[in-house]
Amino acid sequence: MAVEYRVGIDLGGTNIVAGVVKHDTKANEYEIIAKADCKTAIPRPEADVCDSMADVVKKAVKKAKLTMDDIAYVGIGVPGAVNPQTRIVETSPNLFFTNWEVSKMMEERLHKYVKIENDANAAALGEFLAGSAKGCKNAVCITLGTGVGGGIIIDGKIYSGSNYAGAELGHMVIVKDGKKCGCGRRGCWEAYASATALINQTKEAIRGEKAEFSYMLDAVDGDIDAVNGKTPFDAMKDGDATGKKVIDEYVSYLACGIVNVINIFQPDILCVGGGVSKQGDTLLAPVRAIVEQERITKHNDKQTQICAATLGNDAGIIGAACL
């Protein structure tokens, strides 16, 4: 059996995760055999982030009972506008970096060739090779995390545009003159449908409650900073009206952007990844209901399938390892 080992790094605004990916080149199958992670702890200098990435790579390789000599190469999925040719991160609003020579800096630390790609593109590639989009010709992967990432596969290849900055789906405006986005615009989809946006919407709802008792605030022991993306879903499932209101609003924003994406690209599959996607059909069933009513192709026989990304957060690791 021909086997190759690679390392994929998913660099997020919150966490850094590195995974050792075993590639069976005969069967063309991919398996993560070990992972390590740490907090991104942004804002901090580029060199410090590279030190952390190098550290989790070495820890993951050690967990896999391998050495760096066994690793063919390293790939990194980075949020923002990434140029895979120059291997420079031109801008990353969620990491606060511009013209970051991340590949060069990581090669100095790991002594391995390092490829980079936009993190959502890497996740889409992972799903295309080994997940919910496997076997499809055209697919779009939406990642709901610190921001809203978009990865587009057309005719089996990553679409990244002439500036390597395509597929920034999170930065299409869905509310004119709306909330300020990290990119500098107002009303971006990311400002309404990311996991960060959901957490902010939940906190706003808690602060707006007039009753003495807040179910969601009580659920986090009175510490509003402990609210996360799961908080309103748990509250809704337990019958809390405020939790349901937050989720209903969030679903409407998410569905609005998804309808736009489907109308433009008409993919075979649109898969939703990121931490929020772990809610499964609790999230996706109401999204599908809205999309079915609003998409331009509502009367067509063939429709885009909307599903959760089956690889979850591993998609970005596998995709980065396969660049």
Describe the structure concisely.
The chain is an alpha/beta fold. It is built from ten helices and 13 strands.
Summary keywords:
single chain; 323 residues; alpha/beta; five-stranded mixed sheet; 10 helices; 13 strands; 36% helix; globular
Kindly state the percentage of residues in helix. 25-40%
Give the overall shape, derived from the CA principal axes: globular
The major sheet is characterized as:
5 strands, mixed
Mean pLDDT score: 93
Helix-strand category? alpha/beta
How would you describe the overall organization of this protein?
This protein starts with a strand and ends with a helix. The strands form 3 sheets. It has a 5-stranded mixed beta sheet with strand order 3-2-1-4-8, sandwiched between helices. A 5-stranded mixed beta sheet has the order 11-10-9-12-13, sandwiched between helices. The protein has 10 helices and 13 strands. Helix 3 crosses helix 10 (about 315-320). The mean pLDDT is about 95. The protein is of the alpha/beta class and about 325 residues long. It has helices spanning about 45-65, 100-110, 120-130, 190-195, 195-210, 215-220, 230-235, 240-265, 280-295, 315-320, and strands at about 5-10, 15-25, 30-40, 70-80, 80-85, 90, 95-100, 115-120, 140-145, 150-155, 155-160, 270-275, 305-310. About 35% of the residues lie in helices and about 25% in strands. A hairpin with a 2-residue loop joins strand 10 and strand 11. The protein is globular. The longest helix has 25 residues, at about 240-265.
